[in-house]
Specification:
CATH architecture of the largest domain: 2-Layer Sandwich
Number of domains: 3
Helix content: 10-25%
CATH class of the largest domain: Alpha Beta
CATH topology of the largest domain: Pseudouridine synthase
């Protein structure tokens, strides 16, 4: 990639920006990695998440945003939060109303009656209380313990209620990537069933209408080999264990998911990652989209 000029323009010392000229087509992340060679991938992702990158004066948060020759990319250094990331999760966006995190596999979203260990909720509570002991966070949705990926919390009860009351209208996209057992022959499809939970907390799927909660899952195959398939999955409904049950329904259980029929456990975790969360901001009304990378251990299974 050609190295363009780096200009530092500054209205005040606080408003320091770096302006980068695009000299050839590229994806934004690759462009920034090349231009800001002293910054790590994680630091650049943080700049994107904190809305510090703009292209031709439009703020861009998507790492794979396509650039064309002649555009100008600006990096605003003023908003960088010099604050340690809490252990076990990565804060990708925070404003006065919401916090969006990327949760690691193995971390509970919130405590249960039987499990009082550290959770995404307790880690974030501690994080916000460091600034002000009166600060709190509020649960909006959850991910299974062994599922990694994007989660959102509210920073006030008012915002929690605004989002929960209009969750269907507010959440524009929830996309997951999943590694399943076997080679999925149908390139894309939609699974519709009705889910009920047993006393043993196992979800059962029925094709009989109204026998439980209606669940709709759309999928398409991204990669596959003889043993496994990598799917992109979009949820139309958000039922408990929905993806895991629906993958079992089509005869391709999620790897590592013994609870729902898996026999293979090749990467010592569940093969499920919440990749995209897109929603209307509850206060500003603007559309916000957060997309994470596909976990490397998923991709490694298809590199041979």
């Amino acid at each position: 990639m050609n190295s363009g000029k780096l200009n530092y323009k500054s209205n005040t010392e606080k408003e320091k920006r770096t302006y980068l000229e695009v000299t050839e087509p590229a994806e934004l992340m690759k462009f920034l990695m090349a231009k800001l060679s002293t910054k790590s991938r994680k630091e650049i992702k943080s700049l994107l998440a904190h809305r510090q990158i703009s292209v031709n004066n439009e703020v861009i948060t998507q790492f794979n945003h396509p650039l064309v020759k002649g555009q100008q990319v600006a990096v605003n250094w003023a908003k960088v939060l010099i604050e340690e990331q809490p252990q076990g999760l990565n804060i990708v966006f925070e404003d006065p109303y919401i916090i969006i995190i990327e949760k690691q596999a193995g971390l509970l979203s919130i405590a249960t009656e039987t499990e009082k260990e550290q959770t995404a909720y307790s880690i974030l509570s501690e994080h916000v209380k460091k600034r002000d002991p009166k600060n709190k966070i509020f649960v909006l949705h959850r991910l299974d313990r062994e599922t990694s990926g994007v989660m959102m919390f509210a920073k006030s009860e008012q915002v929690q209620q605004l989002l929960q009351k209009a969750w269907k209208e507010t959440v524009l996209e929830r996309t997951y990537v999943v590694v399943v057992e076997g080679s999925v022959s149908k390139e894309e499809g939609t699974i519709i069933s009705w889910l009920t939970e047993s006393k043993a907390f196992i979800m059962y799927s029925s094709r009989t209408p109204n026998e439980g909660q209606k669940a709709i899952t759309h999928y398409r195959v991204l990669k596959k080999n003889k043993h496994y398939s990598l799917l992109e999955v979009k949820l139309e409904t958000g039922r408990k264990n929905q993806i895991r049950v629906h993958m079992k329904d089509i005869g391709h259980s999620v790897i590592g998911d013994k609870k729902y029929g898996a026999t293979k456990h090749p990467i010592a975790r569940l093969g499920l990652h919440a990749r995209v969360l897109a929603f209307k901001h509850p206060i500003t009304g603007e559309e916000v989209r957060y997309e994470t990378d596909i976990p490397q251990e998923f991709l490694n299974m298809f590199s041979k």
